[in-house]
């Protein structure tokens, strides 16, 4: 959701300006691009400018994909620079609407937690997991921060483990347990003069930072281009020379899964698929001053779509719909 690169390593103001310019070129992707621009402005310290971008999105005539996420980010940002009353009013509206997307709940609950409103943060996390995860066989990845955040707040409140905490433990993958990561007494160990205790705490903090970055950072994925069946048919009818790249749609899908598995086995992180369309591909070719039948253009097109926030993370949850668009669970389709 947000970049987390330290300000000393990135010119966040310049990056925000670049993303705003890109949003002007690709209005269909303006929401994703402007949210990232606002995040850079927050990291640069220019919170009023970030608030202006959130307002710009909310005032737009275009229908937003995640309106409650935009509102939640705006509330979190406002609270950080002194507009608590307005932030709380926005938060109350989000909670009353009870969105079916995990991201706004995470932002709201973490904002409450950051301002020591632990009881309210706990209530928000709990309401979210009940709403989104009741009778769900496998929690989707976007909901994991809800489980982890609820576990963290309950540890600070001294609450006993319950079934949701057990579920959080079951989806946690780091070598250090959630109980260790979220132990409120850990901070006292930082004052120890025992090198072994300090080294252990540094290891825990590194794991916690890693979990935080995994949850909040969304760098551009290494994306493989995916042509839906109708788009591939249209592409090959218009540009037959590309048939050498795509002998058939079934082979195209199999090649995507194979390539992603090979990249994953080599340790490449943050993989994804990015769906292409013939009109946007033709427009991209024109912008590059070449013709669409140039096969060398295909990976550049995929990278550009990924940079515009079009990529879908791979692999999906085994129970989630397959990336290929078949509507079958991934575990029964290309994940089999």
From TrEMBL:
What is the recorded name of this protein? SEC-C metal-binding domain-containing protein
Name the InterPro entries for this protein.
SEC_C_motif (IPR004027), TPR-like_helical_dom_sf (IPR011990)
């Amino acid at each position: 959701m947000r970049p987390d690169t330290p300000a000393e390593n990135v010119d966040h103001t310049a990056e925000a300006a670049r993303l705003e310019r890109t949003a002007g070129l690709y209005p269909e992707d303006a929401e994703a691009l402007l949210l990232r621009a606002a995040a850079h402005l927050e990291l640069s310290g220019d919170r009023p400018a970030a608030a202006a971008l959130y307002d710009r999105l909310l005032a737009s005539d275009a229908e937003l994909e995640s309106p409650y996420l935009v509102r939640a980010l705006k509330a979190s940002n406002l609270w950080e620079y002194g507009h608590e009353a307005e932030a709380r009013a926005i938060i109350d509206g989000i909670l009353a609407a009870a969105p079916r997307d995990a991201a706004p709940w995470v932002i709201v609950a973490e904002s409450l937690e950051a301002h020591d409103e632990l009881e309210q943060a706990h209530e928000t996390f709990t309401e979210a997991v009940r709403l989104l995860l009741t009778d769900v066989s496998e929690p989707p990845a976007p909901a994991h921060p809800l489980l982890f955040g609820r576990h963290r707040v309950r540890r600070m409140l001294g609450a006993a483990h319950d079934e949701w905490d057990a579920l959080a433990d079951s989806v946690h993958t780091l070598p250090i347990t959630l109980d260790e990561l979220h132990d409120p007494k850990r901070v006292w160990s930082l004052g120890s003069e025992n090198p072994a205790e300090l080294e252990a705490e540094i290891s825990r903090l590194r794991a916690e930072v890693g979990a935080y970055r995994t949850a909040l950072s969304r760098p551009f994925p290494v994306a493989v281009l995916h042509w839906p069946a109708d788009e591939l048919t249209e592409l090959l009818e218009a540009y037959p020379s590309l048939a050498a790249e795509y002998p058939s749609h079934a082979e195209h899908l199999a090649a995507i899964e194979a390539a992603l598995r090979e990249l994953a086995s080599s340790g490449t992180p943050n993989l994804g698929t990015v769906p292409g369309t013939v009109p946007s591909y033709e427009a991209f070719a024109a912008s590059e001053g070449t013709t669409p039948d140039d096969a060398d253009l295909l990976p550049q097109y995929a990278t550009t779509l990924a940079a515009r926030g079009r990529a879908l993370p791979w692999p999906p949850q085994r129970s989630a719909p397959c990336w290929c668009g078949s509507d079958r669970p991934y575990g029964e389709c290309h994940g089999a």
